[in-house]
């Protein structure tokens, strides 16, 4: 990021709306706004109280009116960035917005970089790093669950959890280091080892629980991955189009039409599903098609749910192979073209018999018509059930960031070493060093002990310009 002392300006709203908002932030933001703004009541913005709205005109350098505007005034430290700030509400014309921004650069503002407003808020102590990342997640939220998770993190619920853990870790570390200060007195033991071990186990359990929540959080944020697999011409692309409610994939009677992986997302009952249409599985000499088939198997590995689409009874070997390749996943067996099937019950009985005596109600195949849409709603409900997403509230702490997840795993590893050292009766200085590593890893999440400016820049560069 550039000089933090400069006043920055940027458009905070998308172009094309009826209203556009330009945001300024910096110690002299109010002064610079005053230079190009003429209030209807003739008063200077320098005299304005915080959280007030002022009607007037923005003037060009020759004194001509560019637009009638409303100016909001925020004074440090009670603003989003913690600095003096103004927000100018203009008419949404692209030309008007460009002219107003140009006027601000003429009087001394510079255009903000992506994420610079939130970066300043972080540097000024208005939020920690995990809360700053939640701002981007809130903007990008696509469903009720991702909105709740981002809001929870923005409100500091995750930060509070980490703060409590850090307090306990600091207490443990300080007691061990106090022992080291009195190492000449071997009879002194400030830190009862059994109590420390119990506390370390408690903290490690909490860190593990937080890390495990990433599977749910990532699925909700990125979309639950669903691979649609099957032989050529069973209707995989037709089903994808039906689930997405748009013609995303090319549909043809020619075998091998889909040669590459096609992905897109849609909402079902408030859950984002990421559907993956794959190349049809068959033996072929076509080099390009074989690459597509190889990618099919790769996507099956990635998916949480696999839809095995059929239009005829599979062989016993095919069933076993599909089960083997999808161990640990939710496998939904779906017979397509039910509008052409003469006897659904016969197909079900054959499939159940082929699966063996361990077949259960949950493994019962579904019968649909991707072409007509018949019974596709039952498949959608089966997908929601298979996703197994818990109900999320604003108070729940769910990890959605890979950066946070990796830091928690490193903290878990360090704390595991602490427990192993205690079991082996290691000295307090060795245990204290690993505890410090845990503190550093948790500090990386909130920004209390961020390791490099490069990490900060990488986080904020993904924000939009006006945030």
TrEMBL record:
Residues 223-388 form the TrmE-type G domain. Binds 1 potassium ion per subunit. GTP binds at residues 233-238, 252-258, 277-280, 369-371. Homodimer. Heterotetramer of two MnmE and two MnmG subunits. This is tRNA modification GTPase MnmE. One of its GO terms (molecular function) is metal ion binding. Belongs to the TRAFAC class TrmE-Era-EngA-EngB-Septin-like GTPase superfamily. TrmE GTPase family. Exhibits a very high intrinsic GTPase hydrolysis rate. Involved in the addition of a carboxymethylaminomethyl (cmnm) group at the wobble position (U34) of certain tRNAs, forming tRNA-cmnm(5)s(2)U34. It comes from Segatella copri. Its cofactor is K(+). (6S)-5-formyl-5,6,7,8-tetrahydrofolate binds at residues 23, 87, 126, 467. Mg(2+) binds at residues 237, 258. It is found in: Cytoplasm. Gene3D superfamilies: P-loop containing nucleotide triphosphate hydrolases, Probable tRNA modification gtpase trme, domain 1, tRNA modification GTPase MnmE domain 2. Its EC number is 3.6.-.-.
